[in-house]
Amino acid sequence: MSEAAVDFETISRVEQFYYREARLLDERCLQQWMALVDESLEYSMPARFVPQPDPTLQDTEAFLSVERELSREDDGMGAPLRQDGYLETFARTFRPFKSNAWSECPAPRTRRFISNVEVQAMEDGRLLTYSNFHMFYSHRGADNHTYTGGRRDVLMPVDGGFKLCKREVILDMDVVTVPTLALIF
After folding, report:
1. Distant-in-sequence, close-in-space partners of 47: CB < 8 Å, separation ≥ 6
2. Which of 40, 59, 94, 132 has its CA 20 to 30 A from that of 85?
């Protein structure tokens, strides 16, 4: 996959897409958010672990690489925390509208901050993006929580906007101590 630089206008449009996405999710406009998602969506959240040091990689950047800490579905290092397609994501966004969704009632309060957006053009016309997030989460008068991490997305240009085709969420936490990972990051 060859990545190429993109112009400032495209970068600005991608940033606006992410800011709008964060606002829609924070305002609980989940159906509007689903309109930003392509039906080919792959949404994943690999688990992180502490890998054994590999002496053959010593003195190289690969020795410290985040990639070595991530579990993927087919690498034998354990299941990812989340591996969803479009239908699973749709079901997750539709669930809060059900009267029997006790864990969603009342709805949690969230606030997402998106930063450090990088955009690269891919050979097939889609965009490979990297971004960081910081999310505040409060629910049912219990302790407040924060989530931080990075996202690796693939966006497809559509009708002057974008559709989210792929998202990999990489949480910063080594030990999961938050009440839920069923959020959209």
Report:
1. 70, 71, 77, 78, 79, 80, 81
2. 132
149 neighbors 131 (Cβ within 8 angstroms): no
Stated pTM of the model: 0.87
Which helix (H) or strand (E) element contains residue 121? strand 109-122
Residue partners of 110: CB distance under 8 A and separation at least 6: 25, 26, 135, 136, 137, 138, 183
Cα–Cα distance measured from residue 60 to residue 185, given in angstroms and rounded to the nearest whole number: 31
The residue written with tokens 């969704």 in the block is: 101
The answer to whether 34 and 184 have CB atoms below 8 angstroms apart is no
Q: Which of 12, 3, 26, 14 is nearest to 113 (CA)?
A: 26
Mean pLDDT of 36-44: 97
Q: Measured in Å, how far apart are the chain's first and last C-alpha atoms?
A: 25
Helices (H), ranges, 1-126:
8-26, 30-34, 86-94
Pairwise CA distance, residues 118 & 155, whole Å:
12
How far is 69 from 181, CA to CA, in rounded Å? Answer: 19
Section 134-157 average pLDDT: 93
Identify the weakest region by mean pLDDT among 3-7, 49-53, 172-176: 49-53
- What number does CATH give the domain 3-46+81-171? 3.10.450.50
